[in-house]
Design a protein that fits this description.
Elements lengths: L18 E3 L6 H7 L1 H11 L1 E5 L6 H10 L17 E2 L3 E3 L9 E4 L7 E12 L3 E2 L4 E3 H7 L2 H10 L1 E7 L7 H5 L4 H10 L3 E4 L5 E7 L2 E3 L6 E3 L13 H11 L6 E5 L7 H13 L1 E2 L8 E5 L3 E5 L2 E2 L3 E11 L13
Parallel strand pairs: 1-2
Antiparallel strand pairs: 2-16, 3-4, 4-19, 5-17, 6-16, 6-19, 7-18, 8-15, 8-17, 9-11, 9-14, 10-11, 12-13
Helix pairs in contact: 1-3
């Protein structure tokens, strides 16, 4: 039965994302714009929604549909972790992450003071194998994690340490959208990020953020961070060993810590990912699909794949950390 809040007949098959079968009559952009309010309400209610049969044909279709769902416009990306290809109108390619590697569950830009409340993924070319964008209910994940661990992260927050260079991830000029070091410094000062320039022109940053968020509409408490995904132990062991040998523990491209600065262990990363796995729902992509994700309530990932995969991304509904959590704590040194 349709939910009274959104008036759409959304199916919830076990182990798969909430889905809506769409007959767009050959005009997916018009269909999306006509149903925008109902779709947005459904995403709040379900945490995510996969539109199947929408029939997005190309990047122009996808961009228009994503913009049609974002009444406040699409957001530019700042503090990018890995490169994306920009498209006109505020649309991006999905993150350029090696096809054979898993991209762990995370909430987009949850290490920022500002982040999108809604993520939108439009599939133009589905891979031959794998490559799904699975999701996980962040409220259920929070409940399943050990209470003492959650309590510690709620007290301390979590810390992200980054070294911007040319080996892994986006260079600082791309991450901050400028070639001007002074503009980067100003951004860091206004976004509670400690920074230090390196002799080789690289940049190291450190920022401390809340690990648990309260949904701005429903009030539901959610595990909201990238503690496991951006930890050094997600790197291939041989790559990790090489980078430590080359740059030292303090020069790794990224790692996460407890808010007090102590390391997050490999065992803890494995525990968090195991809880995510137990709450994961997945559906293989089909060309023309559109997946809408509430970025606070729902984590997302990307599975390894074979063949060509083209998924475009739009970010919408900006939120500030103070809307979902206490004021971000100062960086622990």
């Amino acid at each position: 039965m349709p939910h009274p809040d959104h008036g759409l007949d959304v199916a919830e098959p076990p182990g798969r994302p909430p889905q809506l079968a769409v007959d767009a009559a050959g005009d997916p952009v018009d269909w999306v714009e006509r149903h925008r309010d109902a779709l947005r309400a459904a995403v709040v209610h379900h945490g995510a929604l996969l539109l199947r049969g929408l029939g997005l044909r190309d990047d122009a279709d996808a961009g228009a549909a994503l913009r049609g769902l974002a009444p406040g416009g699409l957001l530019p990306e700042r503090e990018a972790f890995a490169p994306r290809q920009p498209y006109p109108g505020g649309v991006y390619s999905s993150t350029k992450w090696p096809a054979h590697q898993q991209m762990c569950m995370h909430h987009e830009l949850s290490y920022g003071l500002q982040f999108p409340g809604t993520m939108m993924f439009a599939c133009l070319v589905a891979p031959e194998t794998g490559g799904a964008t699975p999701i996980a209910d962040a409220a259920a994940v929070l409940e399943a994690l050990p209470a003492d661990l959650v309590a510690r992260f709620e007290r301390e927050g979590w810390r992200l340490d980054r070294t911007y260079g040319d080996d892994i991830g986006a260079p600082w000029s791309e991450a901050f959208g400028t070639e001007d070091p002074r503009a980067v410094e100003q951004y860091c000062r206004t976004h509670a990020i400690e920074f230090a320039w390196q002799d080789d022109g690289g940049l190291r940053t450190r920022q401390r953020r809340p690990a648990v968020a309260r949904h701005p509409v429903t009030g539901v408490r959610c595990w909201f961070n990238q503690i496991a995904f951006l930890n050094e132990h997600t790197l291939d062991p041989e790559v990790h060993e090489f980078l430590v040998e080359m740059y030292g523990e303090d020069g790794l491209p990224f790692t996460t810590r407890f808010g007090d600065g102590l390391p997050v262990s490999e065992d803890l990363v494995a525990l968090i990912n195991e809880v995510y796995d137990r709450h994961t729902r997945r559906e293989p992509w089909q060309p023309g699909d559109l997946l809408l994700v509430d970025n606070v309530r729902t984590a997302h990932a990307r599975e390894p794949y074979g063949g060509t995969r083209s998924v475009l991304v739009g970010m919408a509904d900006p939120l500030h950390v103070t809307q979902v959590a206490p004021v971000a704590p100062a960086v622990a040194t």
